[in-house]
UniProtKB/TrEMBL annotation:
Domain Lactate utilization protein B C-terminal: 412-480
Molecular-function annotations in GO: 4 iron, 4 sulfur cluster binding; metal ion binding
Organism: Actinospica durhamensis
Domain (4Fe-4S ferredoxin-type): residue spans on this chain: 325-394
Protein name per the record: Lactate utilization protein
Name of one Pfam family that matches: Fer4_8
Amino acid sequence: MSTPGALKTLSGGVYLGMPAFPEAARTSTHDARLRANLRRATHTIRARRADAVAELEDWPRLREAGKRIKDQTLRHLDRYLLQLEEKVTAAGGTVHWAADAAEANRIVTSLVRATGSTEVVKVKSMATQEIGLNEALEAAGIAAYETDLAELIVQLGQDRPSHILVPAIHRNRREIREIFRTQMARYGRPAPSDLTDSPADLAEAARVHLREKFLRAKVAVSGANFMVAETGTMVVVESEGNGRMCLTLPETLISVVGIEKVVPSWRDLEVFLQLLPRSSTAERMNPYTTMWTGTHRGDGPKEFHLVLLDNGRTATLADEVGRQALRCIRCSACLNVCPVYERAGGHAYGGVYPGPIGAILAPQLAGVGGTVEASLPFASSLCGACYEVCPVAIDIPEVLVHLREQVAEHNSGHRLERAGMRGATWLLDHPGALAAVERAAAKTRALHPRTLPLGPAKGWSESRDLPDFPARPFRDWWKANHTSEMSGE
């Protein structure tokens, strides 16, 4: 039995064969229905989040606390991960270390094979999408079934997620009804023949379809929102309860979690359990917050395996500017305020991490050498809205500019840009030459074109007016009008 929605991914969560962002966005921005779906959904979530955050007078202090906890944890990540391993092992779990996607997939596949099972149910997990786990399991003859409602829609529709919180945000109710009606029977219980596109009917169809999988599954795969080092506790927050079914019913539970998800203590966890729900679902608390520590006789899975995933995170940690991306708690607030994401959609970003956070995370996990990865730091207007709403104060615009510099330094396609920057650097280091250029530009200003004629510069100036040069440079005006003041006369 094949897994629905199989898609090949790279180690950094970027899909093979995807075009660079400008090309992908050129197509998606002409999709009127997609833009309408995105506009309606993001504006609704954005407004609700703002109301939820406004309820807390100490929100800025919470935000700063979240930032400091994350930074302190990342500075001592090795210590906290070893403490976590010790506590998980003492509680009856088994810890595995995966350097990259291939190793993580091998570990999970071998663990599932050891149980004799040919299928698994899955909790919504960005980490397993990042490593292409579903595809790896399918290659081994194991079917992986997504149980989150939005992920189910994406999987049945042979689609790709386009949002961190709401993977099927690009679909409307009529499209979802058609997916359920035509695809559910291929992978289990079919949709009712009289299925309508009302949210209640669609949710009930998914509930009935998934229930038989929950009751039959022997193995579940999850991620985790947080891991508490002092006790070895895993934490998953969700809104539907499907995740809890996966975390409690199967005999074997395998959790694949990025190493940056660890927090030192329960006191630290308290901060994030206030920041995350308000920033993501605009709720005071998630309807389902599931926590488990190892295994317990007669309660929950008999076996628990934790796969700690690096996959580029250690390299990201080494970058003093870029490492702040590892603070991310996957709330998706940055996507909901981004004017670029709202118009281009998540698929244009070419990977499992869309929007502003994807534009800084994917190039760091996978490197800036690929076509998609090199284009993502430029998929932004640098308006700063993403930084303003980030619950852990990731300065995404700062990282974007930092990554643009890396792209320009390492990619041959930016030779003209590098040459221009070197020329500007020399000119600014030589005041006499700069003054001569300014005077020449002022004297020839009547001959200056209104638009730039060639290459990328032409596209830039098509929507912008070039500035008018003054009759004389500022330095000459200052010298003529302030010389006496400067000399003390």
